[in-house]
Amino acid sequence: MRFFNKALAIVIMATACFAQEVPESPAGGAGFVMAALTVQVKGEDGQLISDADVHLGFTSPGYKDGFNDFRGKSDAQGLFHGKSKLSMEILIEVSKEGYYPSKLDYNFSGENNPGIQPGDDVRPWNPTQPVMLKKIGNPIPMIVRDDSRQGPTHKAPDLEIEYAFDMMRYDWVAPHGKGETPDFWVRFSPELDDPENPGAKARLRFSNPDDGMIRVGEFIGKESKLKFPRIAPEEGYQLKALEVVGYRYGKPANADSDPPVGYLFRIRTVKDPKTGQILSASYGKITEPTMGDENAYPIQVEAGYGDKNPPSGKLNAYLRYNSYINPTANDRNLEFDTRNNLAPDMEDGYRAP
Q: For residues 187 and 203, what is the distance between their CA atoms, to the nearest angstrom?
C-alpha cells in the first residue's frame, strides 16, 4: 500500500525552527516519508522582513484539523523552517502588524518524487519558498459590488438589442433599471447551435471614447490579501470594447488561453478640448466573481431558459462582474477599506481590499 493513502492513520512528528537550525535531510526518515520547507518573508521591494508571524500546516490526516501545525517568527533573514512526516502539501500563512496577511499552498511536485516510498525523503529537500508581505497603505471607502454574493442580477432586458449600463449604480440605465449614466453598452446574442445546451455572448463597449480598461494579466505577490495595485495609472486605458462568451457545459467560456485576473478601468473622463489634459475621471477595478478562483473570468455571461424549456421558454442572458469604484473624482487610490462599503445595497466585511 502506498504510504500516501490518506485514510491511513499515522503518527506525525515535526519540528519548526529559525534559520540557524536548518533541518538536515534524515537518513530514511525511520520508515516515514519526510518533508521540509523554508519560508523567506520579503516586502514588495525585496527587503527581508523579520519578526513576522509564520504558520506552516503540513498536511496530515492524523490530526483533527488535517494539519500538523507549527507557528513561530521569521528571523533576521526573514526565514522560518519546518520539517514533518508525511506531507506533500503545506499551508503557509504569514502576517505582521502593518501588513496585509499572505496565504498560499506549497505542493511538492510529483515529478520530483516519482514512486516515493516509506523511508524516502520528499525532494527537493528543504526548498525555500518566498512569501511577499504588502504594507497597508491608505485604505478608503469605496463603492463595492460583489455578484458572487448576489447571484446573476444583471438580466438582459432583451437579446440582440444594445442596452446602457451605469457602473456607479450597478444597474441598467432607465427605463430598464435605476441607472442614470451610460458608462458602457451591452448587446447580448444567443448561441443556440445546441438546443439542449444554450448559451449567450455579449459585446461590451464604453460610451465615452476616453474611457476604457487595462487588462491585468497576473498578480504580483498573489499570496497577499491585497491583489491589485494600490494606485490606478492615469493613462493606458486602451481597451475600449470586449466580447465575452458565456460558459456552456462541455464548452469553454471565451477562447482566451491566458485569461486576465481582472481589469483596471477609468470612466466618466472629461478632458480639456485644447490641451487633452484630464479634468475629471473616476477609477476602479473589476475582479473575478469568485475571488481566489483562478478559472473564473472577471466578466461573465450566463444564459438559461428559467422555469420553461424550449421552444415555449424565452432564453435569458445575464451579466456578472465584481467592481470597486473610488467615489472621488480624480482620486486614483484603489485600496479598499473592507469595513466601509459605500454601496447602499451591499454589506460590509469584504475579504479583499
A: 5
Q: What span, in angstroms and rounded, lies between the C-alpha atoms of 345 and 351?
A: 17
Please check whether residues 176 and 45 belong to one and the same domain.
no
Q: Which of 40, 33, 35, 21 is nearest to 92 (CA)?
A: 40
**How far apart are the C-alpha atoms of 20 and 246, rounded to whole Å?**
53
Query: Is residue 2 included in any domain, yes or no?
Result: no
Between residues 185 and 258, which one has the greater pLDDT?
A: 185
Is the Cα torsion angle 109, 29, 82, 4 positive or negative in sign?
positive
- Whether 6 maps to a domain, the answer reads no
Q: Which residue has the cell 486614483?
A: 332
Residue 348 counted as domain residue: no
Statement to judge: residues 131 and 144 lie in one domain: no
CATH, residue 93: 2.60.40.1120
This prediction has a pTM of: 0.84
> How is residue 256 annotated by DSSP?
-
Q: What is the pLDDT of residues 318-353, one digit of tens each?
A: 898 999 999 999 999 999 998 899 988 766 656 688
Domain co-membership, 256 together with 107: no
Cell of 210: 476616453
Residue type, 65: D
Whose cell is 477595478? That residue is 285
Instruction: Please tell me the predicted confidence (pLDDT) of residue 10.
Output: 29
Give the number of residues written for the chain. Answer: 353
* Domain shared by 118 and 158, yes or no: no
Number of domains in the chain: 2
**Tens of pLDDT, residues 139-182:** 999 999 887 655 557 899 999 999 999 999 999 999 999 999 99
Q: Determine, yes or no, domain membership for 350.
A: no
> Where a domain ends, among 110, 135, 160?
135
Last residue of a domain, one of 135, 154, 170: 135
pLDDT of 33 strictly over 80: no
Q: What is the mean pLDDT of the chain?
A: 82
Give the helix ranges, DSSP H, for the chain: 147-150
Partners of 213 in beta bridges: 239, 265
Instruction: Give the residue carrying C-alpha cell 479583499.
Output: 352
Q: What is the dihedral of CA 189, 261, 226, 205, to 10 degrees?
A: -40
